[in-house]
Specification:
- The chain is globular.
- Helix 9 (251-258) crosses helix 12 (302-315).
- It has 342 residues and is of the alpha/beta class.
- Helix 5 links the parallel strand 5 (121-124) and strand 6.
- The chain is built from 13 helices and 12 strands.
- It has a 6-stranded parallel beta sheet with strand order 2-1-3-4-5-6, with helices on both faces. A 6-stranded parallel beta sheet has the order 9-8-7-10-11-12, with helices on both faces.
- The chain has helices at 19-29, 47-56, 67-79, 106-118, 127-137, 181-187, 205-214, 227-236, 251-258, 271-275, 287-297, 302-315, 318-334, and strands at 9-14, 33-38, 59-63, 83-87, 121-124, 144-146, 166-170, 195-199, 219-223, 239-242, 262-265, 280-281.
- The longest helix has 17 residues, at 318-334.
- It has 2 domains: 9-150 and 317-334, Glycogen Phosphorylase B (Rossmann fold), CATH 3.40.50; 166-315, Rossmann fold, CATH 3.40.50.
- The chain is 41% helix and 16% strand.
- It starts with 8 loop residues before the first strand and ends in an 8-residue tail after the last helix.
Amino acid sequence: MRPKQRKYRILLVYSARLRFIDIDAGILGGRHKVERMYIPSIWKINLCHMFLRVRQNDLVMCWFSSWHAFWPIVFSRMLGRPSVLIIGGYDTARMPEIKYGNQTVFYKRWITNWNIRHASFLNTFSHFSQAEAAANANISPERISVLHLAVPDLFQRQPDRERKKTVMTVGSVWGLHRKGMLPFVQAARYLKNFEFVHVGKIYNQSAFRVLQSHAPDNVTFLGFVDDSELASLYQKASVYCQLSAHEGFGLSLAEAMLGGCVPVVTRAGAIPEVTGKHAFYTQAADPRRIADTIQKASSVDDAFRRKIRKHILTHFPMTRREKGMLALIDFVMNDPAGGHAP
């Protein structure tokens, strides 16, 4: 008879509402009691409330290392609670050429790296992010366990039907360079017979106006769409572009591949780790070359699209993340002083 699995109280702290955080909350909530603490602004921090929440839980888990994780980690150390810090992305990036990453600004780098040094356990979602964090935060990569994100199957199967001449990209508009949105819309000028579709919230209006000024008539900005509409778009589109200058993982890219979209991507960050050989690689700085690559990618057959879908199902299943996250929690609670997680 298997021993009864212990249930713990987990305080999950984050500063942005993101799909992969919701996925983790669902995974952990299947066994443990998860209390979510969403802190959208530094001015929304209530230290007394936060202290009580940390004290009432068995462990603290923070998604990303920034200002929102500082006090939870401080209080967890004061109260003898273990803390898990999931890093990778803007917190560990140092790209001054595009003004991206906490590691490019002194005060952001200080608080980010303090959190990294003082959290009980560190975890990240790609081997690229592990190496980047180790280099920029000056810590041993052995301190950082790697567990790829889970990619939920929104489709159940790939429809065998003719694809539209549609090219998609998904990402919130914060700037022009990190996600490669400017060369995406510029490439549309060379493919007038294709429709280019951008999906994502607009946070930076000035950057969005620049995108609009460069976008020809065959570019459509849809803004935010719900999961069912997004899944439908993936299944109809021929090509998905991820022209990033930096990418810690690329969940939207992996979801698009599950839907049978052929990826046209750069080699930035963890993108090759996600796509492997099932992608067409290009240079984000060259819209004409991007257009040529899109043209080639759109001509693949259904057999290649099925291989793309199988690649994601095989390498990034929900079951693997669930098993890994639950094992991480058990490991942390059995070694609360800190150590090298599995």
